[in-house]
Amino acid sequence: MTTANSKLCLNRRGVLKGAAGIAGISASGANLAFAAGPEGRKLVVIILRGAMDGLNVVVPYYENRYYAKRPNIAILPPGEPGGAIPLIDGFGLHPSLPGLAAMFNKGEALFMHAASAPYNERSHFDGQDVLENGTESPLGTLDGWLNRALVALNLSPGAVGVGQTVPLVLKGEAITTTWAPSTLPEADPETVEETLELYNTDPVLKAALQGAVDIGALVGDLNQLGVGFEQSARAAGKILVAEGGPGAAAISFNGWDTHADQTSVLNANLINLNNALLGLREEMAAQWANTAVIVATEFGRTLAENGTNGTDHGVGGAAFLMGGAVKGGRMVGGWPGLSPVDLFEGRDVFPANDLRSLFKGVLRDHWGVDLSALNNSVFPGSSGVPPKNGLVS
């Protein structure tokens, strides 16, 4: 038996209510005691922390003001050296995202620009809280919308968080787990066996340790999973596709706050993200056809570049939706444009599209969450934000 170079952590509620069911997955294919999601449909939520600059990722290259306001950092039009990859309707994709562009051309990815959670005060911490808690206030609730969606479907345990802590979007009543690469040396098999024997009189702790050992064996050698974002994405994919694996995963990718030297920082992050999305698709294999992946960030950035070749906190940003279950190859939502009268407070992309409409559309049509639950419990008080239609097959 091996722990591999990884670990599984259970939140306290998960240990107390469901640890006995978490054990049992192994590299040999034993069943995980997760609910797999409606009809085996998988959902992955990726949060880009730090406020990704949507304008340099989903590039409105037909807009003259985009180039006028960003003389040093704008992405050139398609056909120019280092230019955007053409998408549709005058929009292009950053050249460091060729894998995502290929998904778009295959009809497996779509983009929502001018998108934001219902928050415009430009604080990272508060913006991330609103993005994840599904309300209109940073302190609106202490649990997350993805967890409440699991509760609405009675899928418990049903999700894994990839990272050192449980992200807010996964916190709540439904049982969840977290996995993260270990910073400790790998324990030898004999030590693991002896520790399990010591826990024979404590079924909760033994189940938790057994779950960590088994999922570690499933994830395997981290050196084979790439580095950075890709490693986390591939690990999530391996857990999701395991027999009896969870229906959902949540992943956080940090480092998107580009106040200075945005060109190099964003380029490096997007190469990393491109590898992660391709790695996730590869690990999902045949399950990719039943998968939807949401990529969102807490807000966008200013239209104008600043004095350090970067951009400052804004409002309207860009979100992605991809997967084999996605009806892609298009842009969704309204685009307000970049003229002075169309900007938010004269500086930011106007948030014309509420991210909750994207989330609701996926949860309703991919997972079958009831509209009443979406309006009242998953996203409380959101009946005025209708789900976006036709996002998934």
CA-based shape: globular
Number of domains: 1
Q: Report the total helices.
A: 11
In N-to-C order, the SSE pattern is EHEEHEEHEHHEEHHHEHEEEEHH
Let me know the number of strands. 13
Kindly state the percentage of residues in helix.
Answer: 25-40%
Q: Describe it for me?
A:
With 393 residues, this protein is α/β, with parallel strands linked by helices. It is globular. It has helices spanning 12-22, 64-69, 98-105, 124-133, 145-153, 189-198, 203-219, 228-241, 262-284, 355-367, 371-378; strands at residues 6-10, 42-48, 58-60, 85-88, 91-93, 109-116, 159-162, 176-181, 248-253, 291-297, 317-322, 330-332, 353-354. The strands form 2 sheets. Strands 1, 2, 6, 7, 8, 9, 10, 11, 12 and 13 form a 10-stranded mixed sheet that branches. It has a single domain (6-378), classed as 3-Layer(aba) Sandwich (Alkaline Phosphatase, subunit A), CATH 3.40.720. The longest helix is centred in the last third of the chain and has 23 residues, at 262-284.
